[in-house]
């Protein structure tokens, strides 16, 4: 996730520059990166339907199994203004990347601390950091539960 975060922020220089200009954006930027990452937890969550429910004009019958993708919820225009755009100052940011309630990830606090710490250190120590290849040339690593990139070549 650290590599994906760096790539997302460095792929559009204005994102990185806004964080350099205002380090107070680190915390909300981490939350936005978590919301925006389309392949985090890409396997979805299976849910058994116990009573008929209507979703988007379609009735799903009791006894059915559905696959709930958090990425779809995190891009819901009803929940997030300009959901398809990355907004590093988005607050509140009630994304579902780590689940919710009894189904929330136990490691989410550690993940957030790691991402905030790394991002803060990169901004402070290597403000001139940039991708060494075009963002479109970054290769995704397949077969991981949370996705990833094969490598993130950078220079400064």
From TrEMBL:
PROSITE patterns: CYTOCHROME_P450. InterPro entries: Cyt_P450 (IPR001128), Cyt_P450_CS (IPR017972), Cyt_P450_E_grp-IV (IPR002403), Cyt_P450_sf (IPR036396). It holds the Pfam family p450. The keyword Oxidoreductase applies. Gene3D superfamilies: Cytochrome P450. It comes from the Bacteria. Keywords: Heme, Iron, Metal-binding, Monooxygenase, Oxidoreductase. Its cofactor is heme. The keyword Oxidoreductase applies. Belongs to the cytochrome P450 family. This is Cytochrome P450.
